[in-house]
Amino acid sequence: MKKEKFDPASRIQDCLQFGEFGDVNPSVTDSATFTFLHGKDMTGTFTGEVQGCFLYSRHWNPSNKYLADALAAMEGTEAAWVTSSGMAAITCAMLQLVKSGDHIVASPTVYGGTFAFLKNYLPKFNIDVTFVDTTDVKKVEKAIRKNTRFVYTETMSNPMLRIADIPALAAVAHKHKAKLVVDNTFTPMIFSPARLGADVVVYSMTKFINGKNDCVAGAICGSADYINSLIDVNNGTAMLLGPVLDPFRSSSILKNLHTLHIRMQKHSENALYLAKRFKEIGLKANYPGQPSHPDHALMKKQMNAGYGFGGMIAIDLETAEKANFMMETMQKQGVGYLAVSLGYFKTLFSNSGKSTSSEIPEEFQKGMGLSEGLVRFSVGLDQDIERTFQLIKESLELTNKHFAGKKTAAPKPAAKKPAVKKVAAAKKPAAKKTARRK
Fold this sequence. Notes:
The protein has two domains: 8-30 and 61-257, Type I PLP-dependent aspartate aminotransferase-like (Major domain) (Aspartate Aminotransferase, domain 2, 3-Layer(aba) Sandwich), CATH 3.40.640; 260-406, Aspartate Aminotransferase, domain 1 (Alpha-Beta Complex), CATH 3.90.1150. It has 15 helices and twelve strands. The chain has helices at 8-13, 39-47, 62-75, 86-95, 112-121, 137-143, 166-175, 224-230, 237-241, 247-257, 260-280, 296-302, 320-333, 362-367, 385-408; strands at 79-83, 103-106, 128-131, 148-154, 179-183, 200-204, 218-222, 285-286, 312-316, 337-338, 348-351, 374-378.
């Protein structure tokens, strides 16, 4: 599949959205319900025969619609819908495509909450899931059954940073009448999965899209028919489960969306710089922007030009104990914060196997090559990234020194206890009896 030139930032720039009084920022509509001039229009809106009317904010709200339209423009999809969290987007998108007795093929290398939903929650409804390495398209096709409804993957996997071949996966899924659902949270603007063949694209907007770690939100992008089915008043998963996003949050995310291209460029620039400097000091690092990365060529083939290779990088410190010491030291040194999540303007780091991927059983973690000492960085917008590197280097040196001391120090032999002579207890003198006061 030949990828046409597509510029997500320009698509957002072309969205001419303004408020009812000519506001350069669209007005915030903090209303739960909306009036109708005619009763038949209300009835028609409920049945889906009347379009363009707002019914109730669990269904649509003008502020949410502004954000959804901008996201659809960014993704190159017909429509989008916004949710109150990334997991709400993921779970609603999946549930709308399956029913009891259906089957899903999914990557095991996904966000821990997604894995838990697939592995632990869906089987309660007789929905079967087969976990397959989605970087191996032949294995994916072999796992597909007659009742497979969709293949699920992340464009850049969490936390292993492997790249999915979206066109190839789409071709295999469509060949077997299944859909391809893609989580693009790590790489907004860098990848446009729908343009590459994906049917549904989901996001945790909490991360890079919003970029401030001040809210939790999600998004689902797809065809108009699919989005309308999601919010159908009778059987739409999103409409009936009700994970609606607050309009004030929609408004703030929309404003942040207009700086996303600048932020992604800087995140990518800083991460690539660190990856190169890590290599120079012999630190084992994983970054798709490095030619040595197994999916470097594949990423270059699929990515949109001008946004870099992303802001995520991982290093392997072999043990969780060493990873924790290193992260605590980096926090003290001022590198950033020991915290989960990503896409923040400050650098965040966490030990994935013990945090965001902890829902994934140990045997799955080992199968995907997830070391217990893997530290995942979400590289921030630091102006002086060399300064940041020096702080990381100092933290690494302190960590190595601490653990080198532990390894070289010979264990002391247990000291022999001196023989203790038993001494007869001295007899206590008899207590004198004292007369009670009357």
